[in-house]
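Figure 6 in text form: structure in, sequence out.
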């Protein structure tokens, strides 16, 4: 009886502050948020955490790759959260801060559930993500840590004979990553392996007939090669980020528009560095709030390409001050016995930009001249990616950043 009253009290007094849109997302969660004491905007806080961490990674990843890369900040966030859950208290606090994770374990579970339910494959969007802790055979996992990461779908633990059979271990890594990683540091007791592969159908297809070779330019406007450019004329949402002088185009993906791909170029320039260094989470919130549908069709031209990157996440995390995970076995002693002590953390991601889609934009008669786009005039009526551009994939519900990427090397260099 007392328990019932207490539960009722909790449910009554601590209803989270949520918009209708948020309530729809929440109602799709298995784990009932009403059991947590949530007195702030849950989805907003979740997004804020993801953006903050994504941007922290974005800078080192972008600069280390010379602005030609793809990676999944969300996947790294989930993997590192799994390790943080089992780290010794000091390191745990440090990682929670880096990941912007609240100290309340109940809210952390809600964040995890939001994060791990974003990427799943359907007929029209093939998105595959793997998160594995590959650990030496015979290591005994701490059952409460293992239970927590499995229950929250944070990662999968797989064993391999790391200490006595390097060939079998290399084969297992190749199977998990779908790639050979000959230089991987295997000196520890485990490695963190992460992949995200995306190949989706646009909601509105690019015209098949209009993929053609076109010049691609560098920062100074000099032609540095060519790309196969895909073209479509369609209404679309665009946005202007004044602080970064950036133009943003949003194209929906899939039959139910479950994902959106965002593209960004610098207006009147091509240097992406000011965007990479200047972007903040506030600007990302502003961008999403400011996207507007154009009343007229936009001329869209984007290279058809497949971009794949391997990111040495350990090095990137070291840039952010995380050293002890790789150097001090005792910080992972609550994950397993002997300690998990990872020596590597790698991520391989792929993004395919193809012309295939589900529907075709109906042909439109010429607009009466003077019809306004409904957009900031500086955006004009086109989005032509014939010079370095950024792109990223988000889910429509929470706008978590599943993939972030930059393209600056033409397919056919001069
Ligand atoms: C992330 O949040 C912390 C404070 O919570 C702040 O100091 C830091 O600048 C933020 N990082 C980014 C990239 O926004
Ligand atoms: C791109 O689409 C074409 C069909 O238009 C298909 O033949 C090709 O395999 C696709 N490429 C990739 C990388 O998915």
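Output sequence:
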């Amino acid at each position: 009886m007392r328990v019932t009253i207490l539960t009722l009290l909790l449910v009554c007094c601590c209803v989270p502050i949520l918009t209708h849109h948020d309530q729809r997302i929440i109602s799709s969660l298995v784990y009932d948020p009403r059991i947590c004491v949530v007195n702030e905007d849950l989805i907003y806080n979740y997004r804020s955490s993801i953006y903050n961490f994504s941007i922290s990674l974005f800078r080192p990843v972008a600069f280390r790759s010379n602005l030609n890369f793809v990676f999944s900040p969300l996947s790294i966030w989930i993997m590192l959260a799994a390790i943080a859950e089992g780290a010794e208290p000091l390191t745990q606090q440090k990682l929670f801060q880096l990941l912007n994770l609240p100290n309340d374990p109940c809210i952390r579970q809600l964040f995890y559930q939001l994060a791990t339910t974003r990427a799943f494959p359907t007929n029209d969007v093939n998105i595959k993500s793997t998160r594995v802790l590959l650990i030496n055979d015979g290591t005994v996992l701490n059952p409460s840590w293992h239970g927590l990461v499995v229950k929250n779908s944070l990662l999968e633990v797989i064993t391999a004979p790391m200490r006595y059979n390097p060939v079998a271990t290399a084969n297992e890594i190749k199977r998990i990553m779908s790639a050979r990683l000959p230089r991987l540091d295997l000196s520890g007791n485990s490695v963190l392996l992460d992949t995200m592969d995306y190949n989706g159908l646009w909601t509105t297809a690019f015209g098949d007939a209009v993929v053609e070779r076109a010049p691609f330019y560098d920062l100074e406007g000099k032609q540095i090669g060519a790309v196969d450019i895909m073209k479509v004329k369609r209404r679309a949402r665009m946005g202007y980020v004044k602080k970064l002088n950036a133009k943003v185009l949003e194209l929906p993906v899939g039959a139910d528009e479950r994902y959106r791909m965002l593209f960004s170029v610098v207006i009147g320039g091509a240097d992406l560095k000011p965007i990479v260094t200047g972007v903040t989470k506030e600007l990302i919130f502003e961008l999403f709030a400011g996207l507007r549908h154009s009343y007229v069709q936009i001329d869209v031209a984007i290279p058809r390409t497949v971009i794949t990157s391997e990111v040495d996440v350990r090095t990137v995390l070291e840039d952010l001050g995380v050293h002890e995970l790789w150097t001090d076995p005792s910080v992972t002693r609550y994950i397993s016995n002997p300690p998990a002590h990872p020596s590597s953390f790698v991520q391989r991601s792929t993004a395919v930009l193809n012309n295939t889609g589900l529907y075709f934009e109906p042909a439109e008669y010429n607009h009466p001249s003077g019809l306004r786009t409904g957009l900031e005039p500086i955006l004009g009526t086109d989005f032509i990616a014939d010079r370095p551009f950024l792109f990223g994939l988000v889910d429509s519900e929470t706008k978590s950043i599943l993939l972030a990427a930059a393209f600056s090397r033409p397919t056919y260099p001069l």
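Caption detail: The first strand starts at residue 69 and ends at 71.
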